[in-house]
Amino acid sequence: MTTTSFGSRRLTGVAMSAALLLGVASGCSSDEKSTTDAGKATTSTAAAEGAVLRVPEDHRSIQAAVDAAKPGDMVLVGEGVYKEAVDVTTEDITIRGVDRNKVILDGEFELENGIRVLDTEGVVVENMTARNYVSNGFYWTGSDRYRGSYLTAYRNGDYGIYAFNSYHGQLDHSYGSGSPDAGFYIGECYECDAVIDTVVSEYNGLGYSGTNSGGELYIINSIFRHNRAGVVPNSGSYELCYPGRSNVIVGNLVYDNNMTDGPGIDVSLLAQGNGILLAGSINNRVERNRVYDHARTGIAAVPFPEEDASDTPPPADELKRSCKETRNDEIPDEPVGTVLWNATGNRFVGNVVEGSGTADLASATIALSEGDVSTAELDNCFSDNTFTTSAPTGLEDLAPCDGTGTGGDFTAGALDLMVLIAQQPDKPPKDSYKSTPVPDDQENMPNATTAPHPRFEGPKKPDVDAIGVPDKPA
Amino acid sequence: MAHLTPLRRRGLTVVVAVAMIVLGGGLIANARDGGASSNGTAGSVPLAVEAPAQGAVGPTRHVGPQGRVGQFVVHCDYSHSGPNDPIVHFGHAGRSHLHDFYGSDVIDESSTPEIMLAGGTTCDKVVDKAGYWHPALYDRGELVTPRSIAAYYRAAPGVDPAEVQTMPTGLAMIAGDQTATTPQAGEATGWACGSRTRISDDPPTDCSPGSPLHLQLTFKDCWDGRNTDSPDHQSHVAYSVDGACPSTHPVHIPQLMVSINFPVSGPDHQLTLASGNIYSAHGDFLNAWEPAGLQREIDQCIKRDVVCDLASNREEEPLFSG
What is the pLDDT of residues B278-303, one digit of tens each? Predict the structure, then answer.
């Protein structure tokens, strides 16, 4: 194609050199991989570092450059406002802006997604902004080995940064605000093998949401503030892969998630005023987070009630089955009615929680009938937290993580969920996301124009034991 | 570990089980109530009535949680109502029963795809300027103003997604039978609460405010490849059977399922439709998507078998309302 310009050929050489250096430095073995696919074999070296396609110099639009890119290439986007909705179906490419704050995809509240990656592995997007999209800023669906770094997403109509049915992913050094659903979302995956690290999420319905996701899913070192609710992993049979389970939520700063006048879908109204809310998600670790100033609870495990559910929770011995194994399971022929997805088996350890209107720590369910699971049977445990109030009262004594509880009264000071559910705020106007705060300039990735663009092999497992309780901001 | 076993198949029994009416009787009538010859939508209309569709009497439907097959979903707010029908009574204002319209915000009795493409839309995908409509719903004689629709586009069950082609501009389709006075055969139409996928011939009386009454319409997914409409507005399209289209209608198109959200919950309603009793439920579709936009979604989502949208992201999920 004519788009293989002199400029991009020259850059290819530079990039290849950088790739070799990186390969040596990181021990990356991607350029050693062999493949039986003839088409891929010719690019197996280039898959580590291919050509650089510049926008607008080599291609007028990001989409044109993406369409021209081959595995291993990088699309390097110059400063400007791009009114595009970019679809990506070429694997192992990097799409990078030269300046996070000056490379802006703008949907003008008409286009759907800033960048949408469809069933395509190894797509890295970094150092740019997506705003004013009807659906999502940055979106991976059915796409493994994904990475989004140094991204800013604001005023988008569903999610800021969104991964669905995608595995082996990493979202880092990114910012999401002003979305009615969530600033960050990873959903329908088990085991996800994904990391959210060093992100900021604010002025959303939910800071983080993930339906039916978990398993090697880490949410760490991040800030969730000024949302309707902070971090809300959840479950439901209206989507596949239920329940959400085995998330690791460590070292986050979660505060003032009490927004009442911004965007929010229905479930965020239900979750309003809570910091870390496990809504029907099970077997999670919530450790060493600093959580403060919430109208309701700081950290809580609560049920997610699903009306007209498609199915009921699977038994414990099926929880290790992957999404791929369970996705075609038969569902009951007859209506199962309302299902209570209880949040069970969660560990809450070493968190620092204060300033909660209802309770700093809480574990709750709704037992309406004889034989329904009681709060005492939820098997959530609490130890070594710094807190003042809990529901039920004395939660660390009732349900410690080591040893057995005191056997006290789980009904004393328990949350009255029915009252809380009934006290939902008014639903905001649909277009309220369009007027949320414009963020300040965000940190750029280092050396955006010269940094290499190696193939992304998947996230490194974080050393969560090394993560402490974060300090309050100055 | 979690005490999961006690939860198995236990829910809050606040919802009364829906009485499923046994499906049967009521063959779909091909003939419509006049006006067919005046159809003005794009594409050629055959001079002679073709043989009835060779496909099934009703669709094979997707049931259960979303996400098993590739799909895209459009959410469109209620736009307006009028006694007009640009498919069945083209050019004749006021001849139809009252319809509620979604999508194209300019649609009336004389709408052509060209006019609709030049107008606006109430859909979140702004390239979708198609018209979606159904007879207005009444409760004890009082008009019910609907909220919105979710339109699901998928390969029909059993169909190879790679075989699905785009819909031609101006394609007119009707799901259901407006003349029915007894439960319609098949599941082209049916009622449910919220996003429940099991449907019934009678509207459930146990829907909650957070999971209210929905009418679901499933359109035909096999096209004859030539005509965007036909004198009976049915014969140019057919339902697939076991993933196969009949030889008379060999072109696979997306299976369009439209879910209409009404602010109706609980018992004590007397529901009727502008077309007659509740069994006359039906709906219409007139394609005026921007062609490149529709082609893109079909290529990226259906043919690649990718879940591009979930209706639950588009506020279709049921919500406990206390």
Answer: 999 999 999 999 999 999 999 999 99
From the list A134, A188, A308, the residue facing B194 with the nearest CB is A308
Q: Which helix (H) or strand (E) holds A381?
A: strand A381-383
- pLDDT category at A474 given cuts 50, 70, 90 is confident
Indicate the domain borders of chain B: 31-322
Q: Does B320 touch chain A (CB under 8 A)?
A: yes
List the 101-140 stretch of A: residues with Cβ below 8 A of B.
110-112, 116, 118-119, 134-135
CA distances from A427 to A12, A206, A228, A455, B238 (A): 52, 14, 12, 44, 42
The pLDDT value recorded for residue A41 is 30
Instruction: Calculate the CA dihedral of residues A327, A333, A339, A345 and round it to 10 degrees.
Output: -40
Q: Is A239 on the interface with B (CB under 8 A)?
A: yes
In sequence order, the 6+-apart residues with CB closer than 8 A to the CB of A284 are: A214, A233, A245, A246, A247, A248, A249, A278, A345, A346, A347
ipTM: 0.85
Give the integer Cα–Cα distance in Å for A455 and A31: 9
pLDDT at A29 over 90: no
**Residues in chain A closer than 8 A to B300 (CB atoms):** 87, 89, 116, 118
More confident site: B201 or A31: B201
| Partner-chain contact B196 A335, CB within 8 Å | yes
CB contact (8 A) between residue B1 and residue A316 = yes
Q: Given strand B137-139, what is the order of strands in its sheet?
A: B142-144, B137-139, B271-273
Q: Which among B17, B312, B319 has the least Cβ separation from residue A239?
A: B312
Three-state DSSP state, B301: helix
A469: Cα within 13 Å, side-chain hemisphere: 16
State the pLDDT at residue A331. 85
Tell me if B298 sits within 8 A of B254, measured CB to CB.
yes
Chain A window 3-22: which residues touch B at a Cβ cutoff of 8 Å?
none
pLDDT of residue B34: 29
> Which among B197, B166, B37, B303 has a CA at the least distance from the CA of A335?
B197
The CA distances from residue B138 to A172, B213, B273, B287, in Å, are 52, 13, 6, 27
Find the helix or strand (DSSP H, E) in which A340 lies: strand A338-341
Residue B54 has a pLDDT of 54
pLDDT above 60: residue A425: yes
Q: Please tell me the predicted confidence (pLDDT) of residue B55.
A: 62
Which has more pLDDT, A351 or B63?
A: A351
Length of chain B in terms of residues written = 322
The better pLDDT of the pair B38, B233 is held by: B233
The arithmetic mean of pLDDT across residues B184-206, rounded, is 90
Find the largest Cα–Cα distance for chain A: 76
